[in-house]
Structure formats: structure tokens, C-alpha cells
Design the sequence.
């Protein structure tokens, strides 16, 4: 008898997803370019409905029709190479699923190319890392709706569950799923940056120890900020280095790495012309962290202000930082969701933002209690232009803005960099300002380049001869 689904690519993600699928009662054929990974997996899969294959022909022949094939290979050229080898072996109506961290434009292209051969192509975001892949990731599939319907029962069974609801839903056509996964990763960058700034202030201005910080984050995780990233942050501060006995965070070099998905999100914002300053600033913050040697040199050349002690009790300052963090997080999600709205219009994806918030609630890295609030906001108003205009979020940002202002002031006075907090507040203040100074920019553009401007008092396009004629 034939297998119900096949997995190509048996590195950490493919192997764990295959086991996850098998554990929900499906039979799985597996294939990997180098055969050792197939052997290794089979030796760890005793008693499981996992069927190893050693050629693509054998793999394809082992699958029931229409074939459902999940690719979990390295994103980019490796995915194209794998698709090209598989394509001649497939039949019309077969479904290829790419679960890698693929750039959404590649998914749009592959979806189009494969549909010309009658093969369905689903590009799906999978979040949750190795552990999530095995026990229940958040799944963001995009592609032909009719193909999605055929794989939906599998996706829903293997995904994370929140209150019994699957963290998997149809996102939209072609690249929609990978786009949403990309924005998820961008939001993750911003969440991490904002948490890092909170930590930095409490350490450098309030002098909290790692043990104190563990307590603070553990406490925060019980309230509005309840989330996976806050939870692991609390855990991190508890961990001691086995070699030195120091807190782990204090022996880790302050140079942040990245794989590029945050950068892609910012690049897309620039292409769409939508403001995404918090995520973008978070990408830049990693870049600044990466020039460690330069910073070490500059620290000996350039000075900052003398320390200024906070005017309030430590407990109150910590609460202000918590509020600053939550308000900035709201501004960041407002930007991310506004960008998805712009992309949805640009690419005709008809994204359902409430559904997206819902599948972010479990399995993935940004999972958080507060995503329920985002879902409720879009239930109230599916066409919401900005999350901060929703009644729940409006109340929070209005009452927490004074804390954010206070925290930024304290940071500025002490010379502690808070790029995420600062840009969150600038976004809030820009967004709520009826008249910005862009009138002057328009005047300058018209002055030096005759770029024309519009007027506040009548319709039309205008140009002014700015220079007085020489007498
Ligand atoms: P890798 O990204 O390390 O990819 C390794 C797999 O790709 C192996 O099966 C390898 O085969 C195959 N491969 C590489 N080059 C080629 C090629 N030219 N032709 C055919 N096959 C090739 O594995 P991961 O499991 O870490 O990730 C798989 C995908 O999932 C990636 O797109 C990744 O970005 C994404 N992802 C990863 C997450 C994670 O936490 N790691 C989380 C979410 C998504 P071989 O053994 O023969 O070299």
C-alpha cells in the first residue's frame, strides 16, 4: 500500500515534522539527497509508519495519488534544485509543499511555474523551531485553496493547539503564507529588541542583578506581557555558566546574529512604502551590535553624560519600563499588521488578520496571550487600518504613553541607547499628529527641483517661483 504523505529533506526540521505527522496517524515516506540521513532516521524510527526511500523515483512511486510532498530543504537554490528533480516524476494534481524559510517572491514564482505544469504548490511558513516541528508548530500555508483543502486535515492535526483550536489556517494565494511567516520573524526581531532594551535599563540604570531580573521577567510573564519570549527571558537570567559560575548572559558576547528574515521584512516595507520603523531599527540594532571592535574603540574615545538617578522608587521605575515595553510592543504589532494589509492589497491576497493573529497564539516564537486581543480587535473591525485605533489598544497606548516618555527620558539622560523604545514613541507621536512638517519638505522639493506640491485650501498641483528675480 502507498504512503499518505512524503517528506524530502531530513535535517532537524524535516525529520521532526515527519515524526510529528506520523504520530497523528499518517504513514510517511521520507527521502534525503544524501542517503545517510535516511538510514539515520530509520534507525531512530522503529515501530513507526516511516518508510525510507533511496531515489526520488522510489519516493514518488511510494505515494498515494494525488501526491502530497513536503519539502524541508535549505531555502533558495537547494529548493529549486529539488523541485526541478521532482517535477518530471509528478502527475497533474500532485501537491508540492515548501515548508522552508523561503523568500515570498520565490514562492510566487514557483507557484506560477508549477501551475503551468498542473502541479499545485503550497508555500508554508512553519514556526517553532525543532521542538515545535516535533510537537506542534504554527503553520502558515499559502497557495491554491483547492490544494490546501487536501492537506488541511494533516496541517490541522500536526499544528499547535490553543484552547482546542489549530494554529494553522489558509493564509492566501501563492506567496501569502511565506510573507506572513516573514513578518512574523520581523515582529520577533522587534519583540526581542524591546525586551533587550528593558533588560539593559534595569541592569544599567537600576543596577538589577541577573537574579533580580529573573524575578522581574517571571512576574511580567503573569500579566499583559505573558508570552514565550518573556518566559524564556526569565529562564535565561537564572542560568549559570558551568565554567565560571557567572550568570550565562554575562559571559555571552554582545554581538547579535541574524539569518535575514528581519531584513526582508524591512525591505518589503520600503518597497511597499509602509512605515516599519521598530522592526527596521531592531535589524539596525543587531548591525550595531555586530561592530563590536569598533564600539570597543569608540567607547574609549567618545563620552556620554554623567549618571542621573531616577526620581522614583525602583518598583515604580520597573513598572514604567513594563508599560513602556507593552506600549512599544503594541506599536510594533500595529506596524507589522499594517504592512501585511498593504501587502495584501498589493498582491491581492485577501489576508484575514484575525485568523493570522489566532495562529500566532501557539507554536511559534511570538506566541503570546496578547494575540487574543489582536484577534478580538479584527473581529470587531475586520478592515481596521491600525491596531492602535481599536478600543482596547487605544486605551492602553493612551494610558501607557507617559511611562514610555518617562523611560525614554531616563535612558537619554543616562546615555543608555533605547532605539526600539524611541522609535515606537516617534511612531505614536507621528501617527497621531494631524499636521506634520512635511509641508516644509514639499516646499524644499519644489524649490530645488520643481517637484510641485498640493495646497491645504484647494485641489490641484502647484509650483512656485521661489527665487526673487534678480533686480
Ligand atoms: P537546512 O536548512 O540545514 O537544510 C538541510 C537540508 O537541505 C538537508 O536535507 C540537505 O540535504 C538539503 N539540501 C541542501 N542543499 C541541497 C541541494 N542543493 N539539493 C538538495 N537538497 C539539499 O535544514 P533545517 O532542517 O534546519 O531547515 C529546513 C528548512 O526549514 C530551511 O528552509 C529552514 O530555513 C527552515 N526552517 C528552519 C527552522 C529551524 O529552526 N531550523 C525553523 C523554521 C524553518 P543533504 O543532507 O543531502 O545535504
Sequence:
Amino acid at each position: 500500500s502507498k504512503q499518505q504523505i512524503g517528506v524530502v529533506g531530513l535535517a532537524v526540521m524535516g525529520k521532526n515534522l515527519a515524526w510529528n505527522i506520523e504520530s497523528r496517524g499518517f504513514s510517511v515516506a521520507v527521502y534525503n539527497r544524501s542517503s545517510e540521513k535516511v538510514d539515520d532516521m530509520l534507525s531512530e524510527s522503529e515501530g513507526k509508519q516511516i518508510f525510507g526511500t533511496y531515489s526520488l523515483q522510489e519516493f514518488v512511486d511510494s505515494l498515494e495519488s494525488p501526491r502530497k510532498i513536503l519539502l524541508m530543504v535549505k531555502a533558495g537554490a537547494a529548493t529549486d534544485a529539488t523541485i526541478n528533480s521532482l517535477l518530471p516524476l509528478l502527475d497533474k494534481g500532485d501537491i508540492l509543499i515548501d515548508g522552508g524559510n523561503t523568500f515570498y517572491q520565490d514562492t510566487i514564482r514557483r507557484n506560477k511555474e508549477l501551475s503551468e505544469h498542473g502541479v499545485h504548490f503550497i508555500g508554508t511558513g512553519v514556526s517553532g523551531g525543532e521542538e515545535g516541528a516535533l510537537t506542534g508548530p504554527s503553520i502558515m500555508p499559502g497557495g491554491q485553496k483547492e490544494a490546501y483543502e487536501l492537506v488541511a486535515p494533516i496541517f490541522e492535526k500536526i499544528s499547535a493547539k490553543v484552547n482546542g483550536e489549530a494554529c494553522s489556517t489558509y493564509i492566501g494565494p501563492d506567496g501569502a503564507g511565506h510573507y506572513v511567516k516573514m513578518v512574523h520573524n520581523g515582529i520577533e526581531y522587534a519583540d526581542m529588541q524591546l525586551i533587550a532594551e528593558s533588560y539593559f535599563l534595569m541592569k544599567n540604570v537600576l543596577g538589577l542583578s541577573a537574579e533580580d531580573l529573573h524575578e522581574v521577567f517571571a512576574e511580567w510573564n503573569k500579566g499583559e506581557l505573558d508570552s514565550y519570549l518573556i518566559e524564556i527571558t526569565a529562564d535565561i537570567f537564572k542560568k549559570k555558566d558551568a565554567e565560571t559560575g557567572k550568570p550565562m548572559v554575562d559571559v555571552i558576547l554582545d554581538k547579535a546574529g541574524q539569518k535575514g528574515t528581519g531584513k526582508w521584512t524591512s525591505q518589503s516595507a520600503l518597497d511597499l512604502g509602509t512605515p516599519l520603523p521598530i522592526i527596521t531599527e531592531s535589524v539596525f540594532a543587531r548591525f550595531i551590535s555586530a561592530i563590536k571592535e569598533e564600539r570597543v574603540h569608540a567607547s574609549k574615545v567618545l563620552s556620554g553624560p554623567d549618571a542621573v538617578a531616577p526620581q522614583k522608587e525602583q518598583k515604580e521605575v520597573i513598572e514604567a519600563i513594563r508599560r513602556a515595553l507593552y506600549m512599544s510592543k503594541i506599536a510594533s504589532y500595529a506596524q507589522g499588521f499594517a504592512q501585511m494589509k498593504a501587502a495584501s492589497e498589493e498582491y491581492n491576497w485577501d489576508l484575514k488578520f484575525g485568523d493570522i493573529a489566532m495562529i500566532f497564539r501557539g507554536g511559534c516564537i511570538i506566541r503570546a496571550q496578547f494575540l487574543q486581543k489582536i484577534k478580538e480587535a479584527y473581529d470587531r473591525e475586520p478592515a481596521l487600518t491600525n491596531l492602535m485605533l481599536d478600543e482596547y489598544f487605544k486605551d492602553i497606548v493612551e494610558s501607557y504613553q507617559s511611562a514610555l516618555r518617562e523611560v525614554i527620558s531616563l535612558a537619554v539622560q543616562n546615555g543608555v541607547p533605547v532605539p526600539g523604545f524611541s522609535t515606537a514613541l516617534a511612531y505614536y507621536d507621528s501617527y497621531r499628529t494631524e499636521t506634520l512638517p512635511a509641508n516644509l519638505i514639499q516646499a524644499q522639493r519644489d524649490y530645488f527641483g520643481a517637484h510641485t506640491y498640493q495646497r491645504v485650501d484647494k485641489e490641484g498641483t502647484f509650483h512656485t517661483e521661489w527665487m526673487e528675480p534678480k533686480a
